[in-house]
Amino acid sequence: MSKTNKLTTSIGDQAMRLLTLLMALGVLVLMVWIGWQMFDSARPSIQKFGFGFITNRVWDPVKEEFGAFPFIYGTLVTSLLALLIAGPVGVGVAIFLNEMAPSRIRKIIAFLVDLLAAIPSVVYGLWGIFVLAPWLRETVEPGLAKWFGFSPLFQGPPLGLGMLAGGLILAVMILPTIAAISREVMAAVPDSQREAALALGATKWEMIRISVLAYARSGILGGVMLGLGRALGETMAVTMVIGNRPDILPSLFAPAYSMAAVIANEFTEATYSLYLSALVEIGLILFGITLILNILARLLVWSVARGPKGGHLV
Questions:
Q1: Residue 308 pLDDT more than 50?
Q2: Given Cys at both, which of 121, 123, 144, 214 links 154, Cβ 3.0 to 4.6 Å?
Q3: Residues 6+ apart with CB under 8 A from 54
Q4: Prediction pTM value
């Protein structure tokens, strides 16, 4: 290669390296800029209420008293409920598609699961109002109250619209994310892992548990955390089924409110600056929770990947 070609190649490599570096820094700058703008807009609310804004339970725009705790509570309860339902189901779907399903059935089910991610949020909300909520009100919640009414989680009138409905609809919405990522990381497990377990006399389930799940656990954990991140920020579908009442009650049948829902519902009604600032501060809290969650998820994935198994899929 001539000196001219080497020089041209070197300049091209440096230009590409600089360009990609600027792109990466641009993402970081954008995130910091968004956070700063939200903080600046929320400054009046932060200065007036301080840390009490997070712990206060009262949300009364007429008296100019604002507290975010009911919305934080509703967001966390519905998101964790969705994760408890969609996590095992998503991993189970991934195991079936990767390890057990015939190829013809695998393609059909995988297509249908992926199709769930393409359904608009408002369609999920309408389905929740007209199908899910009546089913919960007439069948599921009375049954849960009958068999598990001793628990505060399943007490109260069966309304249909509440935290249980919000959690279930979120579970359906995050299921494709968890299932797709889990399926991909399981497919990346070398066949030699499976063959070695079977050669040692392991059953089908033992092979999946020892060779596949142990090897892919860090990737599966990452998919679960991504699903939780989506659940925290979901707006329209949850707004339509959660009941939209800023209360803090232990029962899953009770109506509640989420942070994204209160912003969507009341942003256009914020007629004075402190009201608007309080809504922006709720958005800032949601931004912070999502950021902290992703940092903790990454640390958790790294800690799992440093173990004796599963360290190659991060």
A1: no
A2: 144
A3: 67, 68, 69, 72, 285
A4: 0.87
